[in-house]
Specification:
alpha/beta, about 55% helix
Length: about 200
């Protein structure tokens, strides 16, 4: 019996070392604590401003710059489509000509053109961010009855909206979901044959 072990000692040691390696690996990864941290993801956004520069569009641009990573603006439809296809931009916001005047007059007949990568959460997230800014700006305009031609008052309003939107709430995890011991044992036995 010992002659057989002595003759196949190297093969037996390789098996034991591999088995111990997998045991150590499972022990080290099996007891890891789930992360209890939240961080906001910044999407790559392209803003195509076809409107004249106004406090509304400048404020929206600044707000999006704080919530996303702005990428170089493309000026043709093909370049915009290419940017979305190659993931250079995940979201493209086009501000049409006359949008500021329409928005500030209160008619709201014009809409922003929004394009995003298919099956991307960036589109939904950025739509909410844009809508939040426009709703807040609309609230200030309607409350103060500001004239669309009063650029000084509109700049002040854009600054107020910016300061209001800077306020945020810290996300605190009250508890992480613990994995059941049965799940850990099942995964252990699923991978155990690899060492054999």
């Amino acid at each position: 019996y010992f002659k057989i072990i002595k003759r196949n000692f190297l093969t037996l040691m390789i098996y034991i070392v591999v088995f111990i390696f997998f045991i150590v690996l499972f022990v080290m990864t099996g007891n890891s604590q789930p992360t209890a941290k939240f961080s906001e993801w910044k999407s790559r956004v392209m803003i195509v401003n076809q409107d004249t520069e106004s406090p509304l569009t400048a404020g929206l641009n600044d707000y999006l710059a704080s919530k996303a990573t702005l990428v170089k603006t493309a000026h043709t439809k093909d370049a915009i489509s290419d940017a979305l296809f190659y993931n250079d931009a995940e979201y493209v916001l086009t501000i049409p000509n006359g949008f500021s005047a329409d928005f500030l007059s209160g008619t709201h007949s014009m809409a922003l053109d929004e394009q995003s990568v298919p099956n991307s959460t960036a589109g939904m997230q950025m739509n909410l961010v844009v809508q939040k800014y426009l709703d807040m700006f609309r609230l200030y305009v309607e409350a103060d009855h500001v004239s669309p031609n009063d650029t000084a008052a509109l700049r002040q309003m854009a600054d107020q909206v910016k300061s209001d939107l800077k306020k945020s709430t810290d996300v605190v995890w009250t508890g992480a979901v613990q994995t059941k011991a049965v799940d850990s044992i099942a995964s252990y036995y699923s991978y155990l044959p690899y060492s054999m």
